Amino acid sequence: MRNFQKKRNWKNLTQSRPVLLLLGILVLIFVWGMIGFLGKMQVTMENKKIAESKFLELQKEKDTLSKAISKLNTDSGVEESIRDKFPVVKDGEGMIVIVDDKAPVKAPEQESNGFINFFKNWFK
What we know:
This protein has about 120 residues and is an all-alpha fold. Helices cover about 70% and strands about 0% of the residues. The protein has four helices and no strands.
């Protein structure tokens, strides 16, 4: 009989209001922590996507730079690079330099006879 009463006391203690209140508060704290964790997990996923896209962009840039380096390792690539950067020519080649005229172009003055000028300009 005593054994039965001890079990009953333990059951009364676990089902008492203060213990249930304490357990309820612990559950609320746990739920609050999980909500915060899920928010941080979502931010981490977004950061992961950003980092992956940045990685792919850098990988493409690395590939283009590797191609440019391999091109510069050849004689024709070095020559092309020098010709792009500096105005040089080979022996026997000529260089043409185009200079823009800085003087404004004036429109020719037209005569006052609009109808006659119309036909003259049409048959030019």
